[in-house]
Amino acid sequence: MSENPPQSADFRTAHSENPSQLAATAPQSQPGAFALDDGDDEISVLDLLLVVAENARLLIFGPLLAGLAALGIAFIIPPTFTATTRILPSVNRGN
Is 0.85 topped by the overall pTM? Predict the structure, then answer.
């Protein structure tokens, strides 16, 4: 039988409460913390623009690097088939 590691008093009291109250009492300064019962279901456009602006470097350079990698791989891999086309002039018979 394995023993549980010792836990701090804050951890034990926080997890002995009702789980729905845990998120409501979580500090808002921590990343990922949220409140369940605040009643505000709206997201402002400014909040969305801030997230896009914070991740602009990744949003621009990520696809560019992936495209350059795909282009490099396309030139490295040998072609699997070759196509040829011949255009034959029409021959007039008679007149």
Answer: no
